[in-house]
Specification:
The protein is α+β, with helices and mostly antiparallel strands and 210 residues long. It is built from three helices and seven strands, in the order βββββββααα. Helix 1 (97-105) runs antiparallel to helix 2 and helix 2 runs antiparallel to helix 3 (163-205).
């Protein structure tokens, strides 16, 4: 099992400290009519601290030896618990919307940090929206350029002086105008995206909560 024992945020880096508890239960049954003294050999969990039982009979590099009394014609249970401290480091500026949403609703995260993450989600949504708009404009520009290439080939086949050729020339002009407008829109979208990313980074990088 695991339990969060502390969460802090420093300059946009969230550290979650947890305790992992490893538990193993041994059930011993005595078919004899007399009490017996048993030794249980338990493998040591690397890096863990023994929390229960409080004492052991012997310890090697690999195992604990626990002594226990086994009643006549009865049974007993020995529970061994070991505890390992672990920590998780989360660089908030690198997290996607789904990750921020997860941490902002996690019960192991303190309320004041969840509130700060909720605010960060607003900035992250703005970044994602700007990114989507930029991708839409770039795809539109790509389509218009492809259409322009197709019209140019048709124009070369029809000739400039034919009626059909003049129609293709008109379409080329319209497409030129659309592409110029899209290029301007893409420049604006890129700046808006950069600004949104900067706002998110500035907010998260300055975030420090004990």
């Amino acid at each position: 099992s695991q339990e969060a024992v502390g969460v802090t945020v420093s300059k946009g880096v969230m550290t979650i400290r947890r305790t992992l508890t490893h538990e193993r239960k041994y059930t011993l049954k005595n078919a004899s009519s007399r009490e017996r003294r048993m030794l249980v050999e338990h493998p040591i969990t690397y890096g863990a601290e023994l929390t229960s039982p409080a004492k052991f009979e012997e310890k090697t590099d690999a195992v604990y030896l626990f002594a226990t009394k086994l009643p006549a014609a009865g049974e007993t249970t020995l529970s061994v618990r070991e505890r390992t401290p672990v920590s998780e480091t989360v660089v908030l500026t690198q997290q996607k919307l789904e990750s921020l949403a997860y941490y902002s609703t996690s019960g192991e995260i303190p309320a004041k940090i969840r509130a700060a993450l909720e605010k960060a989600i607003g900035f992250r949504k703005a970044v994602d929206a700007r990114q989507s708009e930029l991708a839409r404009l770039e795809e539109r520009r790509k389509d218009r350029i492809s259409e322009q290439d197709r019209v140019r080939l048709n124009l070369e086949a029809a000739g400039n002086e034919t009626q059909q050729g003049k129609e293709y020339l008109r379409k080329m002009g319209v497409l030129d105008g659309e592409i110029e407008a899209l290029v301007a829109g893409i420049d604006g979208a890129r700046k808006a995206l950069a600004d949104a990313k900067e706002e998110l980074s500035r907010y998260l990088s300055s975030l420090s909560i004990e």
